[in-house]
Amino acid sequence: MKHVIHLALGRTDYARAYALQHELHRMRCQGEIGDVVITVEHDPVFTIGRSGSRSNIRVSEAERERVGIPVYEIERGGDITYHGPGQIVCYPIIDLRDYGRDIKRYIASLEQAMIGLCADYGVEATRRAGYPGVWVGMRKIASIGVSVRHWVTLHGLAFNVDVNKEHFAMINPCGLPIEMISLAELTPDDMPMERVIEGLLGHMRQLFDWDILERDVNEYWRRIDG
Q1: Which pLDDT belongs to residue 97?
Q2: Identified catalytic residue from 29, 90, 118, 174
Q3: What is the arithmetic mean of pLDDT over 126-132?
């Protein structure tokens, strides 16, 4: 069993969480800390991965700025996606040398954790060959985009609990003409975000053989705040 620190950021600006990710990645690469998993809800933001393009933003720059959604071009795989309130974003920062050095297996395990989470609420979700993420029929409920440097992971997954569909409609998610869906549209169950995060981490615990240890994020914030 692998000891993993969980840092729950709550609602956090994307740039701030991005800086924390990179500091933790540096520390993990240098052996200063063990594996870490971050959970967070971001303020509205579009991020574009290595294979992405601003051409998949469907509204004008003026309209995007009016709504107040910034854009970040980052080093993860994939195209454009949206993060915002009502969405669980999870960033595992783990050394894949301890997990068989298998990136495809790692991504499949992230997908399986979210498929299991959907099943907890009576929703049948699946993979689609050639399209990373998790799908309910032809609609996408979760996205995956990762980066691996020195065998240590960055970025991760985004699972829609109850997101703003109008914001998603401003882009071609993952560069595709698809519809995104939230768990709240598929089940009458009450879904406090904390409970859904707990469920997701429970599936990750089983799949990765983790012993998850809760830690106060403030000691890590101090590293980037000076």
Answers
A1: 97
A2: 174
A3: 92
